[in-house]
Write a structure and sequence with these properties.
This protein has five helices and 15 strands. It has about 240 residues and is mainly beta. It has a seven-stranded mixed barrel. It starts with 6 loop residues before the first strand and ends with a strand.
């Protein structure tokens, strides 16, 4: 019998800002039994803000913890398994507004979650030539206000399977380094997302405090791409510890 999801929800309004990074910055964060997954020879890091909606843990809705924001910094890896290459994501840090959410994620998966005060804004945007949307995610950390804000350009469209957008969104596994040195692998299911190209309206992040000084030049550079993904219902399955 196939396993039941640990968590189900909807991920919506995913603002994805993508940056090229020196692989050496990421190597200390690469979990055992995985390797960096490159896009046309380039190593990418993504700063992602989105809404977590209608959340259920093992089928049960948790009062006051169903709808919330998340902002994460992530990069891409792959692992050769019995069924072929599994392409996955590694999170440097994930920010959420509820301490209980952060506690559960750390306890069950060993992910680096942190609870901070967060807010978001999604509203129509018009630049005089076309209608679109403005999407903003804000948070407070160490007394510092942070935000990412984008505005869409054009219409939502299905993914081109050979595009950078497809590479970024179609990693369906998560990998997490454990304090013991091992690796936990878990599967994430969702259909392909429609995406819309976007421009940066604001990018104000206390990078050194949140992610470490090594990531300052990465996030201070111009993004290689920016887009908004519509999102969908998702399912996250229980993690499995990989043999060393």
């Amino acid at each position: 019998m196939p396993p039941k999801p640990f968590l189900t929800a909807e991920w919506r309004h995913l603002a994805m800002l993508n940056f090229e990074a020196d692989p050496e910055i990421l190597r200390p964060h690469v979990p055992k039994r995985t390797e960096l997954d490159l896009w046309q020879g380039r190593c990418l890091v993504s700063l992602v803000g989105f809404l977590f909606l209608r959340t259920r843990v093992r089928g049960v809705p948790i009062p006051f913890h169903r709808d919330f924001e998340e902002v994460n910094l992530r990069f891409y890896v792959r692992r050769e398994a019995e069924d072929g290459w599994r392409r996955g994501v590694v999170f440097i840090k994930e920010l959420v507004p509820r301490w209980a959410i952060a506690f559960v994620a750390r306890a069950w998966y060993g992910e680096n979650y942190q609870a901070v005060k967060m807010n978001h804004l999604i509203e129509p945007w018009e630049d005089g030539s076309h209608d679109g949307h403005r999407v903003r995610y804000g948070w407070t950390s160490g007394g510092q206000e942070n935000q990412i804000a984008i505005h869409t350009e054009g219409e939502f469209a299905p993914l081109d399977p050979d595009s950078e957008e497809a590479f970024i969104t179609e990693h369906y596994w998560g990998y997490c380094r454990q304090r013991s040195g091992g690796t936990v692998e878990y599967q994430v299911e969702h259909p392909p997302w429609k995406v819309c190209r976007a421009g940066v309206e604001a990018l104000e992040v206390d990078t050194a405090r949140l992610y470490g000084t090594a990531f300052v030049p990465v996030l201070n550079a111009a993004p290689s791409s920016v887009f908004l993904a519509e999102g969908s219902a998702i399912a996250v399955y229980p993690g499995q510890r990989l043999a060393n």
